[in-house]
From TrEMBL:
One of its GO terms (cellular component) is nucleus. It catalyses: S-ubiquitinyl-[E2 ubiquitin-conjugating enzyme]-L-cysteine + [acceptor protein]-L-lysine = [E2 ubiquitin-conjugating enzyme]-L-cysteine + N(6)-ubiquitinyl-[acceptor protein]-L-lysine. Its EC number is 2.3.2.27. Residues 93-112 have a biased composition (Basic and acidic residues). It is found in: Nucleus. SUPFAM superfamilies: FYVE/PHD zinc finger, PUA domain-like, RING/U-box. The keyword Zinc-finger applies. CDD domains: RING-HC_ORTHRUS_rpt1. Keywords: Chromatin regulator, DNA-binding, Metal-binding, Nucleus, Transferase, Ubl conjugation pathway, Zinc, Zinc-finger. This is RING-type E3 ubiquitin transferase. Residues 93-121, 446-507 are annotated as: Disordered.
Length: 507
DNA sequence: GGGCCCGCAGGG
DNA sequence: CCCTGCGGGCCC
């Protein structure tokens, strides 16, 4: 082997910059400090034991090519490295699984097993954070606890000791000889993990699935502006914390179970200052768009703010126009002029799905709905649940085709603009003749898909209950996207910085 | 009150 | 990544 005075790592293409050959994985060493890959064959000095490869420092980082591998200075990166090596060494995993686990490690995100664990247990999350075995990154199997308070699987720990190590793999404290020779399983921890796992599986099977927005806890209680938002005020604000625990694709009312803060749910008639605040209570999540939905799944909510002239609002029922058909190029973000036909696609299709399936749609009204007497005086108000009785396309008053929807109120709470004359009784629907007159093509076909139960006080699904599961892939995609976005966002401005910024603004 | 402009959020 | 979106503040 030629020993040039300059040692070089592998380049971006994976090829060794010295011999130009792309070494196989087993001939590649990754520096535990800078994570750069190096071709073992071209190294002047190689680590001698498996253990020392785990904490190997490259010539660039060690500053001395002959320096023997020593205690890592950067605990986190070396832990990551150890964990990745552990994954790679695990023969029970396929290459695909290994790749996924590595990805999870690097991204700091652990996917829920089987895809059915979306009702994640916060208890277990906390455990995941603090109790994981530093070697395999899983909840420890037969956990042993060092005097310094770190937990490992018995097997992982024994393997480590077998390599001649006498320090804690997490904090580098010395492991007492007695513990090294005879590690004891921490039985308290065993039962804690068992209980947590049990509660997790119960939560996954139970009817109450609580969903937490990723990184939601990092958000302040009020809307905030980021560094990039240049003007003061809320025009460019990012929204604050979401207070309710319903998933973004939750249909129907938001009940007390999903309102941990107040334990009352979002009440019909509840008002907020603006769309950003409305979003925080989950009634309508998009802070500009009028329709919340997914074209292959349904629409969860709409916002009325009087954007279309031929919309009609009669309180108990109203006509709604779909989105699109307007030229929004340049900065005309809210151009009112139609310039082409709307089609049943994207959000319009989402509304159509909700119509066909009979899903309930939450409705919020904004004070901007100037032509309507049902609009709130100011801010945004939650007006309960409607169903879309019919949807169709017609030529709008601007000469282009628009998607139209007939919304009919079907909430068992009284509307905010009425006295509760019906008490606990189901609220009667608007007279069909009245609707027919207004829509001129309205015809009622079948009975609605959902209704109230015998007592008239609870939801009951007659035909098409709202999907209990999230749409395949779509939800996962969404979570993944959020995560990636959150990561990107946190790079731009850390949570701490953001909070500080909000704090400064208040002063 | 209308136009302009900004950036966030999320679907696709 | 790109595009869209019934916000919201500010300036005229």
């Amino acid at each position: 082997m030629a020993h040039d005075s300059i040692q070089l790592p592998c380049g971006g293409d994976g090829a060794c910059m010295r011999c130009k050959v792309t070494p196989p994985t087993e001939e590649t060493l990754t520096c535990s400090i800078c994570a750069a890959p190096w071709h073992v064959g071209c190294l002047a000095s190689k680590p001698e034991t498996l253990a020392s490869t785990l904490q190997w420092h490259c010539p660039d980082c060690s500053g001395d090519p002959l320096l023997p591998p020593s205690v890592a200075t950067d605990g986190s990166s070396s832990e990551l490295f150890v964990a990745i090596k552990a994954i790679e060494a695990d023969e029970s995993l396929t290459e695909k699984e290994k790749a996924r686990k590595r990805q999870e490690l690097v991204s700091g995100r652990v996917e829920e097993d089987g895809g059915n664990g979306k009702g994640e247990s916060s208890v277990l999350d906390v455990l995941d954070e603090s109790l994981n075995c530093s070697f395999c990154m899983q909840l420890p199997d037969r956990p042993v606890t060092t005097p310094c308070g770190h937990n490992f699987c018995l097997k992982c720990f024994q393997k480590w000791i077998g390599q001649g190590k006498r320090t804690c793999a997490k904090c580098r404290s010395t492991v007492p000889p007695k513990m090294a020779s005879q590690p004891r399983i921490n039985s308290t921890l065993v039962s804690v993990i068992r209980m947590a796992k049990l509660s997790k599986s119960n939560a996954a099977a139970g009817p109450l699935k609580v969903f937490h927005f990723i990184h939601n806890q990092d958000r302040p209680d009020k809307a905030f502006t980021t560094e990039r938002a240049q003007k003061a005020g809320k025009a460019n604000a990012a929204s604050g914390k979401i207070f309710v625990t319903v998933p973004p694709d939750h249909f129907g009312p938001i009940t007390a179970e999903n309102d941990p803060d107040r334990n009352q749910g979002v009440l019909v008639g509840e008002c907020w200052e603006d769309r950003l605040e409305c979003r925080q209570w989950g009634a309508h999540l998009p802070h500009v768009a009028g329709i919340a939905g997914q074209s292959n799944y349904g629409a969860q909510s709409v916002a009325l703010s009087g954007g279309y002239e031929d919309d009609e609002d009669h309180g108990e029922w109203f006509l709604y126009t779909g989105s699109g058909g307007r030229d929004l190029s340049g900065n005309k973000r809210t151009n009112k002029e139609q310039s082409f036909d709307q089609k049943f696609e994207k959000m319009n299709e989402a509304l159509r799905v909700s119509c066909k399936k009979g899903y309930p749609v939450r409705v919020v009204r904004s004070h901007k709905e100037k032509r309507s007497s049902y609009a709130p005086e100011k801010g945004v108000r939650y007006d309960g649940v409607y169903r879309i009785e019919k949807c169709w396309r017609k030529v709008g008053i601007q000469g282009f085709k628009v998607c139209r929807y007939l919304f009919v109120r079907c909430d068992n709470e009284p509307a905010p603009w009425t006295s509760d004359e019906h008490g606990d009784q189901p609220r009667p629907l608007p007279a069909i003749s009245e609707l027919k007159k207004a829509t001129d093509i309205f015809e009622r076909k079948e009975s609605p898909s959902w209704d109230f139960d015998e007592e008239g006080s609870r939801w009951k699904w007659k035909k098409a209950p709202p999907p209990s599961k999230k749409p395949a892939n779509a939800a996962d995609l969404k979570e993944g996207k959020r995560t990636r976005k959150a990561i990107r966002h946190s790079r731009k401005l850390s949570t701490r910085e953001r909070l500080l910024k909000v704090g400064n603004k208040k002063q």
